[in-house]
Amino acid sequence: MYKISYVADGATTEYAFSFPFFQVADIHVAINNSVDDSIVNYSVQPNEDFSGGTIVFDDAPIADTKIDIFRQISLN
């Protein structure tokens, strides 16, 4: 699994990741180890070649919040 972790500072709303993915639905965010999307609103802004991108939160996560950005792909 590809993953990068951050600790929020209470002001930052954009967090970069640099691992490849195929579609926006492959990228997930866990907040304090919870993947419940109803906790926080964010969008995924991919690089042109899907080699990474940026997670943009509507509101900055509270200071000391653990943010994990990871790729999860379904193989069909």
In short:
The protein is mainly β. The protein is 0% helix and 39% strand.
Strand numbers in spatial order across the main sheet: 1-6-3
The fraction of residues assigned to DSSP E strands is 35-45%
* Element pattern in H and E: EEEEEE
Mean of all residue-level pLDDT scores:
93
Q: Please tally the helical runs, counting DSSP H or I stretches of 4 or more residues.
A: 0
Defining traits:
mainly beta, 76 residues, 3-stranded antiparallel β-sheet, 6 strands, globular
Describe what this molecule looks like in 3D.
By secondary structure, this protein is an all-beta fold. The protein has strands spanning 3-7, 14-17, 27-31, 42-46, 53-57, 66-71. A 3-stranded antiparallel β-sheet has the order 1-6-3, with no helix packed on it. It has a 3-stranded antiparallel β-sheet with strand order 2-5-4, with no helix packed on it. The protein is globular, with a radius of gyration of 12 Å. It starts with a strand and ends in a 5-residue tail after the last strand.
Furnish the topology, listing elements before pairings:
Blueprint: E1 3-7, E2 14-17, E3 27-31, E4 42-46, E5 53-57, E6 66-71
Antiparallel strand pairs: 1-6, 2-5, 3-6, 4-5
